[in-house]
């Protein structure tokens, strides 16, 4: 193992560079992981969300332990681990009220230097709060979905879904597919996916959507009523990050239902609502940023139980040298779902998958 490594570094949306970086040094209570695979997240294409540049791309890695600090006793070389890139703490006002991910401490905790690189360092707090040894029954590619679809799990926990409810998902990219796929585990009956792409809508059917609507081809409100015995949806989850999508999503919520905001608008973007309807329709608006240790634990148990078709969400695989091409595919958001980068080369059995 050398002391230098490759890393895919984000400089701008159209400027992803492969650079040489030092392999991180670890302390006595830390570990070093070899990156087996790392997913790319659509949030990384939102330029306003990048708070610092340049930065190593990716925050959804799965790793294998290659170095262990002198004081670490729970992990050994060769263990395959999922470590959440952000982790919370217990001793704060927000954390004690269940808002682990909104405590500023959460965002301050990061993997060093990121996910799309050959090796990364894990701190003691990461190991204490949200580290998981992966059983052989969970493949590395399936495990790549733990971080993003744990965020889906986090969102579904606040969607107020009652058994048999109709759930609509506006936006059927990778995260939207997660909401479609996992909503029945929370009691959803009918699950309706909405997207402008027929390819994504076909994928949504594969992940459990009972109905699909393409707003380019039909009025979505009328289509929803046809699919749902004349009613709108009990819960509507909007993933598409635009005011137009949020407005459309609100039009699809039945009286007394829930509108869940599953992705942010850019800061400073206005979202205007009808004040009369906001009062009389008794629609609950929810949101949930990221996932905490309880969400990842829940998701991993469901994954191990075979309840989630995670590996089927992997649509494309790239070597680290092709990270710019992978990121451009992510940015275009056409016929792709989860894109995975392999810093040490795509395994032979996955090259033609």
TrEMBL record:
<protein>
    <submittedName>
        <fullName>Zinc-binding dehydrogenase</fullName>
    </submittedName>
</protein>
<feature type="domain" description="Enoyl reductase (ER)">
    <location>
        <begin position="11"/>
        <end position="341"/>
    </location>
</feature>
<dbReference type="InterPro" id="IPR036291">
    <property type="entry name" value="NAD(P)-bd_dom_sf"/>
</dbReference>
<keyword id="KW-0560">Oxidoreductase</keyword>
<dbReference type="InterPro" id="IPR020843">
    <property type="entry name" value="ER"/>
</dbReference>
<keyword id="KW-0479">Metal-binding</keyword>
<dbReference type="InterPro" id="IPR011032">
    <property type="entry name" value="GroES-like_sf"/>
</dbReference>
<dbReference type="InterPro" id="IPR013149">
    <property type="entry name" value="ADH-like_C"/>
</dbReference>
<dbReference type="Pfam" id="PF08240">
    <property type="entry name" value="ADH_N"/>
</dbReference>
<comment type="similarity">
    <text>Belongs to the zinc-containing alcohol dehydrogenase family.</text>
</comment>
<keyword id="KW-0862">Zinc</keyword>
<dbReference type="InterPro" id="IPR050129">
    <property type="entry name" value="Zn_alcohol_dh"/>
</dbReference>
<dbReference type="InterPro" id="IPR002328">
    <property type="entry name" value="ADH_Zn_CS"/>
</dbReference>
<dbReference type="InterPro" id="IPR013154">
    <property type="entry name" value="ADH-like_N"/>
</dbReference>
<dbReference type="Pfam" id="PF00107">
    <property type="entry name" value="ADH_zinc_N"/>
</dbReference>
């Amino acid at each position: 193992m050398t002391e230098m490594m490759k890393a895919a570094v984000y400089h701008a949306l159209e400027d992803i560079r492969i650079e040489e970086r030092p392999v991180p040094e670890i302390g006595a209570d830390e570990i070093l992981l070899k990156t087996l695979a790392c997913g790319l997240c659509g949030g990384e294409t939102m330029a306003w969300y990048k708070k610092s540049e340049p930065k190593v791309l990716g925050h959804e890695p799965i790793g294998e332990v290659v170095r262990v600090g002198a004081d670490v006793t729970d992990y050994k070389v060769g263990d395959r681990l999922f470590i959440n890139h952000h982790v919370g703490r217990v001793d704060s006002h927000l954390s004690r009220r269940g808002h682990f991910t909104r405590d500023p401490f959460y965002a301050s905790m990061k993997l060093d230097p990121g996910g799309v690189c050959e090796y990364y360092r894990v701190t003691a707090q990461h190991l204490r709060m949200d580290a998981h040894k992966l059983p052989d029954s969970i493949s590395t590619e399936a495990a790549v979905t733990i971080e993003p679809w744990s965020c889906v799990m986090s969102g579904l926990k606040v969607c107020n879904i009652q058994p048999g409810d109709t759930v609509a998902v506006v936006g059927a990219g990778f995260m939207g597919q997660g909401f479609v796929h996992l909503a029945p585990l929370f009691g959803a009956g009918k699950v309706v996916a909405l997207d402008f792409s027929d390819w994504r809508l076909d994928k949504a059917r594969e992940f459990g959507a009972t109905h699909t609507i393409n707003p380019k081809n039909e009025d979505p409100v009328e289509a929803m009523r046809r699919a749902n015995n004349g009613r709108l949806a009990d819960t509507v989850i909007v993933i598409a990050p635009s005011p137009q999508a949020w407005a459309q999503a609100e039009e699809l919520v039945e009286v007394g239902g829930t509108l869940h905001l599953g992705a942010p608008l850019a800061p400073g973007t206005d979202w205007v609502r009808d004040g009369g309807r906001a009062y009389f329709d008794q629609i609950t608006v929810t949101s949930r940023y990221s996932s905490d240790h309880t969400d990842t634990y829940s998701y991993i148990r469901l994954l191990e139980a075979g309840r989630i078709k995670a590996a089927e969400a992997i649509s494309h695989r790239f070597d680290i040298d092709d990270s710019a091409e992978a990121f451009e595919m992510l940015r275009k958001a056409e016929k792709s779902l989860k894109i995975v980068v392999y810093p040490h080369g795509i395994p032979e059995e996955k090259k033609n998958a």
